[in-house]
Amino acid sequence: MSAKQMQCTIKSIAPVGNYLHLVLDAPEIGEVQPGHFAAVAVGGIGGGMLLRRAFSIHKSAPGQSLEIIFAPHGEGTQWLATQNAGDVIDVIAPLGQPFVLPRQPVACVIVAGGYGAAPMELLARALRSRGCRVDVVLGAATEAKLFGVLDLKGVSDSVIVTTDDGTSGVRGRVTDVLPNIIKQNGSQAVYACGPMPMLHAVAQVAQENGAFSQCAVEESMACGIGVCMTCVLPVVGDDGVTRMVRSCVEGPVFRGDRVRWNDVHTIPSDAFGAPRPGGH
Predict the structure, then answer these.
(1) For residue 150, what are the contacts with CB-CB under 8 A and spacing of at least 6?
(2) In 114-267, where does DSSP find H-type helix?
(3) H-assigned helices in the chain
């Protein structure tokens, strides 16, 4: 995988539910795998916003186009929402470590919260191409905040929707229905993308039910290339040692049972290189 810094012309930008669907002309884009992300410069030249914004790649066509889904929350994404077809933005892509696909056909569950579903159609297609059963759980606070329901129905064996307020599907959270799906289908792998509390809960449910989980974390990524250190989190390595790793380089996809979810946004005292009491 070779990331490139590109000047991409906006082909279209249009609302999809509560989100915006951005399609970019990206003739230099290489092959994108499920879980890769793009780092977009925001604010324009001289705009004062130095840090890029990271977005999961929704779809792409090598040498042609790149698509992302985003919500205009902060200053950077609000600026991006004001751009129009024909405008040019600076993008670095594809970045990060993607989801790891199973070598053999196994039953898999895809779990996504809100527009965390953006990269999951690409993942579902990849899993199905390997003969895997794919069940999907999509959750959101309310129906308007769901994304990709119809598209994922077309590339999976089943889709279950949950909403906190019951406006669509099952009233509740994704973890309310996940255990039964794992047990019913003998699911061995769970793939998740969404808010950190959801990922923590999904990883725990997967482990309790004997499934292997991979989570695409939503840490604050800025540079996207491992320089700024804004996206570090504690992850246990193969040797059992906890290290502060960069979500943008070593991630954004991590094994769910390796992330120390309760210690995110801290440096655990037993982490490699952690400051010692008294400075020794």
Answers:
(1) none
(2) 120-129, 149-153, 174-185, 196-208
(3) 75-81, 120-129, 149-153, 174-185, 196-208
Residue 279 has pLDDT above 60, yes or no: no
Mean pLDDT, residues 27-36 taken together: 96
- Is the CB of residue 224 less than 8 Å from the CB of residue 253? no
Type of residue numbered 128: R
Q: How far is CA 70 from CA 90, 183, 240, 252, in A?
A: 16, 33, 36, 17
CA distance 17 to 2: 33
| CA angle (43 as vertex; 41, 44 as ends), nearest 5 | 80
Strand ranges inside the chain, DSSP E: 4-16, 19-25, 37-40, 53-61, 65-70, 88-95, 107-113, 133-140, 158-163, 170-171, 189-193, 212-216, 232-236, 242-246, 253-255
CA–CA gap between residue 149 and residue 234 (Å, rounded):
33
Model pLDDT, residue 225: 76
Show the tokens assigned to 84. Answer: 């129009």
Cα first-last separation, the chain:
41
**Cβ atoms within 10 Å, residue 95:** 24
How do residues 91-123 score in pLDDT, each as one tens digit? 999 999 999 999 999 999 999 999 999 999 999
Q: Which of 62, 56, 57, 2 is nearest to 29 (CA)?
A: 62
Domains belonging to the chain, first-starting first, are: 4-95 (2.40.30.10), 107-218 (3.40.50.80), 222-280 (no CATH)
Q: Is the dihedral of CA 162, 207, 122, 250 positive or negative?
A: positive
